[in-house]
Amino acid sequence: MASSTIVGMRRDRIMELLGEKGEASVEELSAALEVSEVTIRRDLDRLQASGLLVRRHGGALAAPPSPEILPEKVLAEKDITNIEEKRRIAAAAATLLSVDDILFMNSGSTILFFMRAIRDLRVRIITNNAAAIDQKLDPSIDLMMLGGEYRAQSRSLVGEFALNTLKDIWSNHTFLGTNGVSIERGLTTSVYQECSVNQAMVRNTHGKVIVLADYSKMDKISNFVSSPLSSVDIIVTDDKCPPEFARRLRDEGIEVIIA
Description:
By secondary structure, the protein is of the alpha/beta class. The chain is built from nine helices and 17 strands. It has two domains: 3-62, Winged helix-like DNA-binding domain superfamily/Winged helix DNA-binding domain (Arc Repressor Mutant, subunit A); 68-258, Rossmann fold. The chain has helices at 3-21, 26-33, 37-49, 75-78, 83-94, 109-117, 160-166, 192-203, 243-251; strands spanning 23-25, 53-56, 59-62, 68-69, 102-105, 124-127, 142-145, 149-151, 156-158, 173-177, 180-182, 186-189, 209-212, 220-221, 224-227, 234-237, 255-258. The strands form five sheets. It has a seven-stranded parallel sheet, with helices on both faces. A hairpin with a 3-residue loop joins β11 (180-182) and β12 (186-189).
């Protein structure tokens, strides 16, 4: 039998074992397939490069299903979906604030729900969310718009003007809405220009980076990475978030608050 055929059959068997058990150590796979641990490690590296499994110290895990890629929606459409979940998320997030906080907030409908949930805290919100201008906000809120190029679809302000304003400001916390949350790919958005604004907010934060995302964003991806999960401290979501996905987020060191 040709060498390439033997290798292919062995790797197929590795995938079968991972499918049955979920995970396996190099030692277990070596014994099951009767080949050296060096050979197994080489197979696992190749299978991981193909996206078929996830390497872990001493072994491997079956790769999770590929997340669904989410298209961009106009803000008006997003503002009428999952309303009750977004209200609960906003109320839970408001408990994380302190009087006189300076806060970065990006664009998106969940962030608008959050702004409306803040009461009597005398906070300053610095945002590229142009839709915030239309909101009936608590009088204690001091709203500062970044300026920049206006995107009508997302009602967001982007570009060099916004970035130049951000670089001279430090926030107590950053609150981010997102199009998708993925263990492997982090926070993603459908708008490339918004990535640099989100990243600048994260960089210029003294305190915590807090993501507000309902269950429909969990284990989903959009087109552009706006922040790795390693930059996120807290995710506030709702009780429809799949428990297994919440557990995986906690395994990454992220605090998950269920509203």
